[in-house]
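Tokens as discussed.
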């Protein structure tokens, strides 16, 4: 008992002893920026009024999901500062679902106008979910374009539905042949027919970094 009592007292002291608290350090910039990034993402996903792009004269029309242009433009200053360029934009922002060349092919090969595709797609388009993977870029000589790379199983499923419902073969319309993206801005002019998917992502243009620029 004389030996056991000191042992029990020692155990009690050890149980009540807390390890020293680590020295507090400042949060890294990316953690500090997370609340701002979250607010920006909410703003980017705010519902927008649908804008129709019907066939007009020689234009076959096209189909797109509008997104907040104001939110997209908050990235411009950061890109211009980091890359030392000046960007132009179209004054609106969207995710293209059916491109003008695709609408042209569908109209010529299957006789189906963009208005018919739009009428079917609109309810699913407005309910579609999508997420931003980061900022991408493509270059062609002096031309350069910057965009948000978008992932959306819902929009891909919509393109597949359009192919099935309107019985479009792959030569007329390939549902998988679209890199969903949101154009931020460009130098000289936009560039089409280039990779605007994951392979175009720019490591130095993190969303948190870009949003930190005034």
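Sequence:
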């Amino acid at each position: 008992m004389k030996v056991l009592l000191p042992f029990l007292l020692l155990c009690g002291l050890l149980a009540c002893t807390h390890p020293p608290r680590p020295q507090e350090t400042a949060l890294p910039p990316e953690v500090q920026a997370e609340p701002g990034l979250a607010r920006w993402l909410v703003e980017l996903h705010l519902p927008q009024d649908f804008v129709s792009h019907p066939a007009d004269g020689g234009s076959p029309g096209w189909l797109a999901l509008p997104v907040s242009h104001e939110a997209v433009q908050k990235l411009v200053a950061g890109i211009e500062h980091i890359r030392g360029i000046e960007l132009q934009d179209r004054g609106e922002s969207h995710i293209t679902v059916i491109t003008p060349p695709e609408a042209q092919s569908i109209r010529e090969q299957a006789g189906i106008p963009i208005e018919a595709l739009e009428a079917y797609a609109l309810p699913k388009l407005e309910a579609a979910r999508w997420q931003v993977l980061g900022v991408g870029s493509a270059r062609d000589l002096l031309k350069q374009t910057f965009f948000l790379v978008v992932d959306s199983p819902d929009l891909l499923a919509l393109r597949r539905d359009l192919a099935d419902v309107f019985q479009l073969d792959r030569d007329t319309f390939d549902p998988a042949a679209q890199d969903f993206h949101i154009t931020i801005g460009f130098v000289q002019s936009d560039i089409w027919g280039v990779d605007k998917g994951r392979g175009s992502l720019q490591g130095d243009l993190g969303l948190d970094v870009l949003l930190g620029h005034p």
